[in-house]
Design brief:
The strands form 2 sheets. The protein has a 6-stranded parallel beta sheet with strand order 4-5-6-7-8-9. The chain is globular. Helices cover about 40% and strands about 10% of the residues. It contains 13 helices and 9 strands. The longest helix is centred in the C-terminal third of the chain and has 16 residues. Helix 11 packs across helix 12 and helix 12 crosses helix 13. It is an alpha/beta fold and about 300 residues long.
């Protein structure tokens, strides 16, 4: 079987302090609540039966289901999902200060299939060059930015300083792309979904033409805007998490077959669902499947696999 790289996943609780402590817990199961995301997954996130329509109608119910999935992000559950889906490597995204590279490095030492990224600790931005350099030296294979959860604009002075510091390492920067919400009720102050809208994403990638970026989720429900505003930049690739087969075909046509990658946002998304969507989108083209499932990510991550 050909190796598969899931280029966008998570370990630990990425929403609250001390989230790394979740990683080594065992026997963790998803809370027994109504999960409308499963309905969307059953139809491969096609909008008529899921996707944006589902989000618009159900709102906080979807957010509650997403949060329930977040709290299942243990290494044990990650390995089980990889084995069930046939995934060889899983690139794990920290979101400092909740989950850090140090948390993921420990997990990677116990499972060779885990590829850790690093993240920006905005409380220590004055040391960002040294901190990111040390993480790369210790095995980080990319940088993760999440403007919504970290509540820092992609176009901020601090973010630009971090990307500039990371650029010499020649590794990819994966940023959350697209409007989404993670907190409820009195916790909305923790996030700013507008920070991950597509125009600021464009401004970031335009400012650093020598850096390889991965637009997470291909913009979620704003995939057409991603195609319109980002596909012209040769330093931008996309992962297909939460995208239906039809949108994946559009992404391949717009970005090219070398800039589209398999990603799931596990545990927020399903590895099997994304895999099925890619296979349908590829229509039996084995060469295209290999690029999306492995080759494109392996090249950016500088993996000799």
């Amino acid at each position: 079987m050909e190796p598969v790289i899931d280029v966008h996943t998570h370990l630990g609780d990425i929403l609250y302090p001390g989230g790394g402590s979740l990683i080594e817990m065992t026997g963790v199961k998803k809370a027994r609540i109504f999960d409308p995301i499963s309905i969307s997954e059953a139809f491969l996130h096609r909008d008529l039966v899921g996707g944006q329509a589902l989000q618009r109608i159900m709102g906080d119910i979807v957010t509650r289901a997403e949060r329930a999935r977040n709290f299942t992000a243990t290494r044990e559950n990650c390995r089980k999902s990889m084995d069930e889906a046939g995934v060889t490597y899983t690139a794990c995204m920290p979101i400092a200060p909740y989950v850090t590279f140090a948390d993921l490095r420990k997990a990677a030492a116990k499972d060779a299939g885990i590829i850790p990224f690093t993240s920006v600790d905005y409380s220590r931005i004055e040391d960002v060059q040294a901190l990111l350099g040390a993480d790369v030296a210790a095995g980080a294979r990319g940088l993760k930015l999440h403007a919504t959860i970290q509540n820092i604009p992609l176009t901020s002075r601090e973010t630009f300083a971090a990307v500039e510091a990371f650029a010499p390492h020649g590794l990819p920067v994966l940023f959350h792309c697209g409007y989404s919400s993670y907190y409820m009720d009195g916790e909305k102050y923790r996030e700013n979904p507008s920070y991950s809208e597509i125009p600021p994403c464009r401004d970031l990638v335009k400012a650093f033409p020598g850096v390889n970026f991965i637009a997470g989720h291909a913009g979620l429900f704003q995939v057409r805007e991603v195609i319109s505003l980002l596909s012209a930049y040769p330093n931008v690739s996309v992962d297909i998490s939460f995208q239906p087969p039809e949108k994946i075909r559009e992404l391949v046509a717009s970005f090219g077959p070398e800039r589209v990658m398999y990603g799931t946002d596990w545990p927020w998304g399903s590895r099997k669902t994304a895999m099925k969507a890619v296979k349908i989108a590829c229509s039996g083209d084995g060469s295209l499947e290999r690029k999306i499932f492995h080759d494109n990510a392996a090249r950016l991550l500088k993996m000799a696999t």
